[in-house]
Structures are given as C-alpha cells and as structure tokens.
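Proteins fold reproducibly. Next comes a concrete instance:

***
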Amino acid sequence: MAQSGHHSCLLLTSREKPTELPGLEGRKTPVRSLRLDSLEASACEQLLAEHELVGSPEERVRLIERYGGNPLALNIVAQTIADLDHPETLFWGLAWSPDGKLLAGATDRRGVLLWEVTAGSGRWIGRELPIWSRRVAFSPDGTRLVAGGDDRHVYVWDASDGTLLQRLAGHDGAIMSVAFSPDGTRLASAGGSDLLVWEVHSGAGVRALAGHPSVASAVTWEPSGERLLSGGADGMLRWWDLHSGECVRVHQAHQGTVWALKVSPEGQRLASCGDDGAITLWDLERGEPLRTLRRDRPYERLNITGIRGLTEAEVATLRALGAVEDEASPSPEQAAQR
C-alpha cells in the first residue's frame, strides 16, 4: 500500500518497528513513523483506577515503573490482577494453614490466592504487587503468611486480613523457597546465592549463609531448628549449622535443580525432588539416601556394560534414560581399543 496510489489512510501500531519501513518513510513520502512514549503518571493512575485496583500509592508507582508506563502492558496486568478467575493464572506453590481451613496458592504476577476451603471462596493477598511468587508458607500458629517474589524480596502478611507486615530485602536473586522454623520464631528464605534467616516478629536478619555454590532453590528446617537443609541448581543437598553458619554435609541428590524439600511428620526422613523426575528419600540424621521413587524410564535397568560403538555423550544419554553399567566398566574409547 505504501508504494501504490490511493486515498486511504492506514494507521498501524507495533511494539517493534517493521524492518521494511526505513526504506519507505521520509519527509516527502506518504509513509511516516512516530514513536509513542509512555503515558504520564496521572494517566497511568487513571488507567489503574478504571480497573478498580487497590494498593498504596507507592505500590501503584512500582507497578507503573515495572511496565514503563506502557498502556497496553498496564491494561493487561491490571485486568489480570483484577480478574479472580483469569485463565492465565498459574499456580507455583501451595500451603495449608495449620488448622486445614485455608489453602494458599502462589501465582505468577498476581500475589497469593487464599482459599477458604469449606466455603470454596477465594480472596487475594498482595495482588497489587506484580511479583512472581514461587513458594508460599504459613507460620506454625497460622497467623502469618509468607511468599518470596522474583523482585528479590520476601513478603510477610497477616493471614487474617491480608495486611502487609514486612517486606524483607537482602537476596541477590529471585526468592525460590521460604520456610518457617518449627517454633515459628524464625523464617528461612532461599534465593540467588544466599540462604537468609530472619527473626519473624521484627523482620531483622539473624543469619546469612552466603556463598551458596549455586542458585539456592529449596530450603527447609530440621525438626530441632538448629540446622537448615538446602537444595541447589547444581543438584546438591546441603546441611547447614546455624550456630557456626557452616555447611556441614553435602550430597549429590539429583541431576539438575533440586526443587523441593519436605521433612516427614515423624522428623526422621527427608524427601527431595528435582529435574531428573525422581523423588529421593533420605535418613535425615545420617544424611544417607534410603530410596529413590521414580517411574521407569525408557531404558530402565538396561545393562550397557562393555557396549561398543557409542560416544561418551551417547552413553551419558542412555544412563539418563535409566541404563546401568557395572562398576569399573571401561569407557567406550577403552572398549573400542580391545
């Protein structure tokens, strides 16, 4: 249309400038391109008000700044936040209240959805915060609800009315996991390269287990409250002594990221799960694996000891799919030399 004569006017909008336009536009040609800047703050506030969003002025400013005042993006996120049953709501973590009456779900960009299970009704907590919450937890007495955001902050709310009590800062990456201590006086959070421990009532940091060798992806407490256990993106499981701040034990747990850790009700076993599709059960005191729970993979228990004609990469792939080799078996290169 830009290269033919006509009496029409066509207006196109795009987030990116089409690559064909530079050769067609100019002061003496019928094609013009204009850059649309972000909305003014007052217009952004009006847009959010039309969606009946709640929140403090500071929280609305953070929302506007996060999306650069882009009207399309603000419209989408405001509608998503306002719509309780939005089809794009994704849940990343769940937590029951101690009395079993409430169920909290951590969502992508929408805060925490708190369900009253018997009534089947839900209400939002922190939905004015455009954060991705991966994990959520109740305090042992059920009075507090905590979630970690991708904005590197830990959020603590009053579970009864949703009042934001604390916004804790200190991590160098997105918060991947949160857990209250057994007595409810401390809170542990995992994110970036740090494990941090907080005093619940004051929000003060009481211990920083810094220098996690990889991204800290999961955290839980031993029943005694004297040690933390963490899982990392390197597939390792680590035991941390809170008095010394030292890592006292390390075990390979999974191939890929460790995503969740749960202590059994009697406090003697630990369950871990990871990218490899397995759940591993551990003796919590001795730190030894007890059993692996996994559905059979395509080559489960296939013995490939001494197999010829395969590269190291191909053998590694077979192992990942369940194949096994006898101990001290030769490598493919060694086998090819025989």
